[in-house]
Amino acid sequence: MNHYSPRGLPQIAVALVAMLILTGCVPGDLKTSSVASNPTSLTSSKALEGIPVSKANWPHEKWWHAFGDTQLNQLIDEALVSSPTLRGAAARVRQADAIQGMAQAQQLPQLDANIVSTRQRYSENGTTPAVMAGTWQTVNQDTLNVSYELDFWSKNRAAVEAAVGRTKAMEVDRY
Question: Which of 23, 175, 3, 19 is CA-nearest to residue 89?
Answer without folding.
Answer: 175
